[in-house]
Amino acid sequence: MIKKCQVFTPPETVKKLLEVVGYEKDLYGKKIIENACGDGNILTVIVERYITDCLDKEFSLNDIKAGLEHDIFGAELEEIHYRNCINNLNKIAENYGLYGVNWSILNVDILKEDFDFKFDYVVGNPPYITYKDLNEETRCFVRENYEVCRKGKFDYCYAFIEASLKLLNERGKMSYLIPSSIFKNVFAQNLREYLLPFLNKVYDYQTIKLFDVLTSSAIIVCDKGNTVEQIEYINLDKRVSYKINKIELTYKWEFVNKKKSILGKAARFGDYFNASITIATLLNEAFVLKNFKDIRSFEEGGQRYIQTNKFIIEDNLLKNAVSPRSLSYNKEELIIFPYFYNEGSLVRYTEEDFKKKFPFGASYLNSFFDKLQKRASDKSVKWFEYGRTQALAHLNQEKLLVSTVVTKQVKTYKISEEDIPYSGIYITKKADLSLDFAKKVLESIEFLEYANSIGINASGSSLRITAKDINNYLFNIEEV
Ligand SMILES: C[S@@+](CC[C@H](N)C(=O)[O-])C[C@H]1O[C@@H](n2cnc3c(N)ncnc32)[C@H](O)[C@@H]1O
After folding, report:
1. Residue 78 alpha carbon to ligand 1 centre in Å
2. Is there a single domain that holds both residue 374 and residue 421?
3. Domain total in the chain
4. Which residue among 92, 388, 389, 402 has its CA within the 20 to 30 Å range from the CA of 127?
5. Domain range for residue 109?
């Protein structure tokens, strides 16, 4: 479980963590903890600062040694890193003639530790471990003991943020390097509510890579003795900073400069259009026919069929399948559509009718029977139907298709009433604005900026957005 989270903090970021929390001078008597300290990348700098500050103030070596033992704390779960950390701290101390320091570095699980005193500073870079990589015992322990982890698929680091805030005294300050997904992830909603009262600043690295992994990072700064109504947001990537009212940080935290962009923005995308997630067959290999090389069609008894060298399917069981990928590569695809519309409403076949009307299609799908049965489908879904039925209701109209992943540009595709989108987000009209208008809104620079501020990092410089993000977008009708 632990191997995945041993990415230690680079020196420049260590400096930033200490600078933003103000751990710079007058350090004697101030208790600090690095509560997942690894080999001591942060603690060694803390110790060096502490010693030089004390030497500047002409403390004796004996006092400094006692100070190091009483003021500087660390915790590390893994013995090997705990030992490395002690060795690294000894090397620093010995450079200043300080030998035999009895360090307050603990080889413990900090989430299970109680202290009978509180700290002036917590500084750190906790382990990030996704829910799926946590073992059952840890999940249970964390869920029972940390309120920010009560619901859903939390990351291990959420518990460290709660634990750190609890370690601070009433004037205590904290700087913590965290994955910026905590600002947007649905399962971090409780964490955001817990954190917000104490939060003062966010230093957002955005696309600046601190580690060789896909995580994008930010430093949060909390100050228990100075609660504020506005946070300062510092975008280290774009080198801009501005204040944001805490009351505007609800649901996902969207760090936009409202002063610059909200003026005159009255229209909500979702009031004029409906952005929804597309259908999910939960077994595209059965429903979507991608390889056209070997397909030919023929007619018999008034019915058209398509035939490959492996199967035959009734032509009227098929519709055009589209995805942002197939459209961008101009690839033709077909999808089995085991439903029909009657006066605009979707109708589902009984199994008997389906087999009678489409004997070839039914026997083709039957060859995937085991896999179809094993899908985590919605309740009442029959074996020959799509796994998720939610998106089907509004499909039979003109629509736009947009990818959930945004890289540099938002691309939308106009698709017909008959086309069945099977990945991405599709947009239909709700009020009197046209789909061309929606296309203009979604392909605007302003929407791209919004997507950059609200999207969750997918990979490299790509961001993932949701249908809800699109519906919540505010824009100025006159400026489109
Ligand atoms: C991301 S690394 C960061 C190390 C160090 N803070 C740094 O910035 O260089 C996280 C560290 O937390 C340790 N760790 C994981 N779970 C822990 C726990 N429950 N208590 C204490 N340390 C833990 C890991 O062994 C790892 O060394």
Report:
1. 8
2. no
3. 3
4. 92
5. 3-255
